[in-house]
Every structure is written in C-alpha cells, then in structure tokens.
Design brief:
This protein has helices at about 20-30, 45-55, 70-75, 95-100, 115-130, 165-175, 185-190, 200-215; strands at about 10-15, 35-40, 55-60, 85-90, 105-110, 140, 145-150, 155, 160, 180-185, 225, 230-235. By secondary structure, it is an alpha/beta fold. α2 runs parallel beside α3 (about 70-75), α6 (about 165-175) packs across α7 and α6 (about 165-175) crosses α8 (about 200-215). It is found in: Cytoplasm.
C-alpha cells in the first residue's frame, strides 16, 4: 500500500462473493472512495488473485460455491497477515468463532450497512499499516522477549515465537498501550470487532496462550497483567 519511498498509494481490496449484486455494489462504492478493487466469485479464484495482486484487505463471503470461506481464510493465513473481513449471512456465534479462530480480523453479517462495512474496512487498513518512523516505538524489548511491531514478529531466546493472527493482534494492542490499562471491552472490539464487548472468556483463553508462549512463569506473569474485572496491562 505504500511505495518503497514511503509515499502512500491507493489501498487494494479483494472482494470475494458469489452474489453478483453484492460484488457490484461493493465495487462501485469502493471505487468511488478511490480504492483499487479486484473481485473473485469462488475460493480458488480468491486464493489465486490474492497471490497475484497482494491486496491490502480482503472482504470475504463464507458461502462460496467451491469451498467454505473458512478454508480460504486458512489458505491465506498460510502465507499472509492481510486483514480479512468476513461478510456472511451466518449469524451463529460458533460460526463466527470458527472464522475468527481461523484468522479473520472482523465479521459483518448480511444484510449489512455499506457505511459500517466501509468504516470497518478503513480501520482494518489502518491497523495493518506499518508504523514508519515517528515517535512510535517499533521494537519493544523485555528480559524474556522482543516484539518487532513493523515486522510483526516476536523473538524469545534467539528464536521466533509462532503466534496466531489473533494472538498477535492482542499482543500488538497491549504493547502499543504499554503501561496503560486496556479495558476488556476495548480489547475485544480492537481484536474481534465492534460487535464484541462482553465475551471476556475469549480474552482469558488468549491471554493464557500469550503467557504460556512468552512469560518465564505463566502462573506469575510479569508482563501481561490482569486488572480483575477491568482489563489488562502490558509492562516491560
């Protein structure tokens, strides 16, 4: 999305949906807002286009003719961290959780408001942008591990630590707010999307995973601190 010289370029969106009217509406609205748009009508086409065109964000329907959208998410997550916004008629929490656990960044249910979808898309593109220079700290070091916010990597004891997209997103929000309490609701909405705010069990599960991977003593964490009933705080 930005050139080697740092000049911003037009974000590229890959729309994946087998309903022509939805694809047409999205293409018209996105192009009107100066996005470059590619469109695929099935999973295989989506994976091929993503590899060829390297989009900045993917808008993905789950009900595709050749494969389930969750398979597309897993296929993309095998090689890219591109933000993925699921656009689906499936409303059950189990199906949302499956898509999010596979690596989706957000979930919008059909029928949807175009303004809301575009707002979520803008937020996804913003979150994915590298923090080039400025006053932002891009390399955060603790006694146990190092977080590289630009390369999106964590190193512990000289080895890269493999994090899922959701684990990374949670870590990134906490690290960028180092020393500050981040509320449960803010974390849920930043990591899982605006429609989340009460699913605190998600946070408990993923915080336990981060502590297991990064803390010297996960049962007595030094870096990922729980403020009971309020939220979490990252301390260096």
């Amino acid at each position: 999305m930005s050139s080697p010289g740092g000049v911003p370029q037009t974000p590229r969106v890959l729309v994946v949906d087998d309903e022509p009217q939805i694809v047409r509406a999205l293409v018209i609205n996105l192009k009107a807002r100066k996005y470059d748009v590619d469109a695929a009508h099935d999973g295989a086409g989506a994976l091929q286009l993503a590899a060829a065109r390297h989009p900045d964000v993917v808008v993905l329907d789950l009900g595709l003719p050749d494969m389930d959208g969750v398979e597309v998410i897993r296929g993309l997550r095998g090689w890219t961290r591109v933000p993925i916004i699921v656009l689906s008629a499936r409303h059950s929490s189990d199906e949302k959780v499956e898509a999010l656990d596979a690596g989706a960044d957000d979930y919008v249910t059909k029928p949807f408001g175009m303004d809301e979808l575009l707002a979520r898309l803008r937020a996804a593109v913003r979150r994915a942008q590298p923090t080039g220079g400025g006053d932002d700290e891009v390399l955060v070091e603790t006694e146990e591990f190092t977080v590289d916010l630009v390369a999106k990597k964590v190193n512990r004891g000289g080895r890269d630590v493999r994090l899922t997209p959701t684990e990374w997103h949670l870590l990134e929000v906490l690290v960028r707010n180092s020393g500050r309490l981040v509320s449960q609701k803010q974390l849920l909405q930043e990591v899982w999307g605006p429609s989340y705010g009460t699913e605190t069990n998600y946070l408990r599960v993923y915080m336990a995973q981060l502590r297991r991977k990064l803390e010297a003593d996960p049962s007595h964490p030094k870096h990922f601190i729980t403020e009971p009933g309020m939220g979490y705080r990252f301390e260096k």
